[in-house]
């Protein structure tokens, strides 16, 4: 048990460290394969022992060893969160292919969230990749439940598509539809319904707080992907229990 948690967390830290490279190079349109890590200011090559996820950042006090330039806090945050998402996948799905699919789906969604928060946009290639991964992964792993997989995707993607249509793309965009579709496929029906609710409720709460704090006006578009990620995590943790409770209380 604990042994597997440690393996998942270490794998998560390494994947998170790779995701930082993906995020950086996609933004700068650099090749993913070539070139090693360099300090952005002094161009000094970063030594392997200074690339240990999270730990190096702490030891270096968040600064480049050569020129003392500040390193973005985004690096340890992405590494730490990826490790957490890997541990969550093991917690929910145990040692299974489903937990591997879960870990990679959640990590890719984290990359999407970072893009959405920083650039207020999501590269098409990432939302298509997420959709493709969820679709192929679920066909391979849950073919016997393919009906509820597809229904989950249609419910989740359909609600977002409807809102994009009603608001003419002002509240959410086409990227959000593909992402919601992917989440719905992954969670399947009926857990997908709970994740849609959790996304909207968390989005409404945070949006209201930001407007009250005058950090945003009512007209600003709030990136929605962080709430899609929250809805997915909330549904993995509590979705089934709440749906069972709801069905037991109001229908059966
Ligand atoms: Zn430097």
3D architecture notes:
This protein has two domains: 1-95, no CATH class; 121-252, no CATH class. It has helices at residues 2-27, 55-59, 74-93, 97-119, 124-141, 146-166, 174-187, 191-212, 225-250. The protein has 252 residues and is mainly α. The structure holds zinc ion. Zinc ion (ZN) is lined by residues 39, 41-42, 44, 64, 66-67, 69. The site of zinc ion (ZN) has 8 residues, from loops.
Number of strands: 0
Give the number of helices: 9
Strand content: under 5%
How many discrete domains? Answer: 2
Write the layout of secondary structure elements.
Blueprint: H1 2-27, H2 55-59, H3 74-93, H4 97-119, H5 124-141, H6 146-166, H7 174-187, H8 191-212, H9 225-250
Helix pairs in contact: 1-3, 1-4, 3-4, 4-5, 4-9, 5-7, 6-7, 6-8, 7-8, 7-9, 8-9
Bound molecules: zinc ion.
Essential attributes:
252 residues; mainly alpha; binds zinc ion; single chain
Question: In brief, what are we looking at here?
Answer:
With 252 residues, this protein is mostly helical. 69% of the residues lie in helices and 0% in strands. It binds zinc ion (ZN).
């Amino acid at each position: 048990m604990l042994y597997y948690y440690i393996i998942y967390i270490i794998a998560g830290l390494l994947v998170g460290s790779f995701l930082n490279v993906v995020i950086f190079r996609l933004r700068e349109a650099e090749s993913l394969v070539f070139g090693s890590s360099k300090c952005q200011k002094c161009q000094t090559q970063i030594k392997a022992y200074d690339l240990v996820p999270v730990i190096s950042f702490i030891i270096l006090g968040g600064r480049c060893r050569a020129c003392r330039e500040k390193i973005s806090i985004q690096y340890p945050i992405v590494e730490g969160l990826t490790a957490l998402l890997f541990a969550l996948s093991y917690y929910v799905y145990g040692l299974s292919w489903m937990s591997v699919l879960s870990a990679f789906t959640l990590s890719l969604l984290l990359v999407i969230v970072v893009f959405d928060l920083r650039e207020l946009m999501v590269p098409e290639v990432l939302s298509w990749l997420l959709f493709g991964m969820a679709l192929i992964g679920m066909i391979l792993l849950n073919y016997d439940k393919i009906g509820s997989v597809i229904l989950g995707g249609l419910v989740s993607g359909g609600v977002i598509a409807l809102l994009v249509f009603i608001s003419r793309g002002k509240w959410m965009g086409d990227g959000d539809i593909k992402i919601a579709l992917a989440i719905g496929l992954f969670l399947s029906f009926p857990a997908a319904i709970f994740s849609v609710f959790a996304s909207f409720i968390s989005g409404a709460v945070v949006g209201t707080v930001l407007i009250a704090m005058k950090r945003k006006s009512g007209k600003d578009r709030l990136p929605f992907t962080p709430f899609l990620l929250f809805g997915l995590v909330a549904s993995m943790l509590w979705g089934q229990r709440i749906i069972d409770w709801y069905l037991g209380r109001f229908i059966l």
